[in-house]
Design goal:
The longest helix is centred in the first third of the chain and has 10 residues. This protein has a four-stranded antiparallel sheet with strand order 1-32-31-30, with no helix packed on it. It has a four-stranded antiparallel sheet with strand order 2-3-4-5, with no helix packed on it. 5% of the residues lie in helices and 47% in strands. It is built from three helices and 32 strands. The protein has 394 residues and is mainly beta.
Amino acid sequence: PPPLADDLAGEMEDVDLDEEQGAWVTEEEDEGVEEGMEAQDDSEVTFSKHTASVFCVSLDPKTNTLAVTGGEDDKAFVWRLSDGELLFECSGHKDSVTCTGFSHDSTFVATGDMSGLIKVWRVDTKEEIWSFDVGDLEWMEWHPQSHVLLAGTADGNSWMWKIPSGECKTFQGPNCPATCGRVLSDGKRAVVGYEDGTVRIWDLKQGSPVHVLKGQDGHQGPLTCVASNKDGSLILTGSVDCHAKLVNSATGKVVSVFKAESIVPKPSVGETEETESNSVESLGFCNVMPLAAVGYLDGTLAIYDLATQTLRHKCQHESGIVQLLWEDSSPVVYTCSLDGAVSLWDARSGKLISEYRGHSAEILDFALNKDASIVVTTSGDHQAKVFCVQRPDR
């Protein structure tokens, strides 16, 4: 008879390990992510028109009834949250759609792909009204008060267009990618972070930087995310250097530096300090209390008290945090993570309020509606999902 090993190998060949993951869990082992991921689905609606990873989602700000999603299948779709019904496809992209967004009044929707092709569609007529090719796209955002679109590209430029006329302005950064950007709430300035660790606060009218943060004031690694508080007086910048910096937007001065070193969890078994890579992945300000949240790739959610500039809570996730968002009118912060879960945290107590699952792969982006009753997620499992998160006791 053939040796046992050959026999087993023969049998194993037709076993798809991913599918059979559950079968390999021994009694004493913890049931792995895959088991839980398959079993539980807390979502109300699943949108499954994408045929590859879904990278981004935005909700229409006016009615909060529509979503736009973009994916690795070079497609973007505008669809209805209530039932997942497709409204229209944003056709014509030839590369992964990584940026999507509705204008402030939900009149227009913009879709941008990695190669830099940006298209704008009129939502009511479902027609493309404008397109432009910028070269490798890093981020894209609508102006908070007008039909103006901003984007940052790999050559270090940031672009601003009036829509639909297409009048254009460029803001020349350093010779490296403009990795993230945000228009401040006054609508007159934008903060842009770059791969070389520098941050610029631009005057959109003048087209010139009001403040440049570099060297000690900048970061030691590429910027990953920027955020500002409601009135735009404070900015947070985050980087792969694991630091988050609190900046006064009027003076351009760094008010405080939040360092991950002070909150490092012990390396897990079999992991040495060297192999553990960490970075700030997402950050944001609470609207109703002087709090800020910083989410890290190692799964740490840090809640900082801005009044005292101290760490208030550390909320540990099983896996890396992809993004975080604050509820509009309460001190509740939402996170989505690489293990496919959406978690709600009470920033006052640092306690987990609830958790929602349903994806069988990592969540790549998520959006929250205005009254914080609905979360829409996108995932590597090719799906977008709608979760109802409203609880009577909150």
